[in-house]
Amino acid sequence: MAQEASVNIQPPRSDDRRLWDVALAVYGYPALLIAHRLKVFSLLADGARTLPDICETLTIQRRPAEAILTAATALGFLSLQDERYSLTALSEDYLLEKSPGYFGFFWDMMIDNFQVFSYGSLEQAVLTNLPQAYGGGDIYKSHEEQAELARRFTRGMHSISMTLAAAWPNILNLGGHRMMLDIGGGSGAHSIGAALQLTNLQALILDLEPICEVAQEFVARHDLQSRVRTHVADMWNDPFPEADLHFYSNIYHDWPAERGRFLAEKSFKSLESGGRIIIHDVLYNDEKTGPFAPAAYGMLMMGWTEGKPYSALELSKILKDAGFHEVETYPAFGYYSIVTGLKL
Hints:
Structural class: alpha/beta
Number of domains: 2
CATH architecture of the largest domain: 3-Layer(aba) Sandwich
CATH topology of the largest domain: Rossmann fold
Shape: globular
CATH class of the largest domain: Alpha Beta
Number of helices: 15
Oligomer: single chain
């Protein structure tokens, strides 16, 4: 009987690490959230500790402790020397509550709403084109109706905003502006950051009432009550108070493009000649081939909002169509950029 000819298997044109990266990220990155919730980082703020010491203090066994500590070390949040784990500068800057750049409140919000980033919820968001947070629907309507949800969300967003707020005011020459309207300003982080760096600037945080209450707490922490105030209003339906600088951070990505066009046109009508608009956000590249972080941000938006990330090209067109001139884009901090224009 004739033997069948063997079939040559051609090797792939690339190795399989990126496929493994997808599979392993689903398990690896949550280790950081677990370490945060177990208070590993605050524990190590007092000094380096051995694995047995950490196990005893956290009352967890060696195998799970080693798993989360190894993941945290591999990702640069911990270092291991002489069998003792210690914090890196990254975790000291962002994962200790005493730090002004503390990111932990945002991670708490993720943990509290873990169903949103489950496979099932994200698949449902893709299939229905509807957000899944708080059981689905409009999260901002939920915030209007449930003050405590709004407060927790606002503190979570503050967690990611203070570091960003230290960067963007230095990118442009804003010395000629006197009143910043922080539209949908949440905790007021950006108003606080701008006021701390631009000593002649006053700021007004426009948001819903329970959110303004949280913002007042943060403003008071920085002793800026005389220069940063809150204004309870609905950005969609209420008039904008007088200002010569309109600022939007993490607003445009929450909404479909027609809502962004509405806000740009409303700002243009409200601003006097010489007024400036700034949109501060995570942006796709103009070809929409990446980068990965904004692409992943798009999936985050699928789970939480009706919106999506935009490219600088798209936001620039929205501003130009509204009537703004000298529209430019600048890198800000980390994954964030600003798109800005002037009313001549």
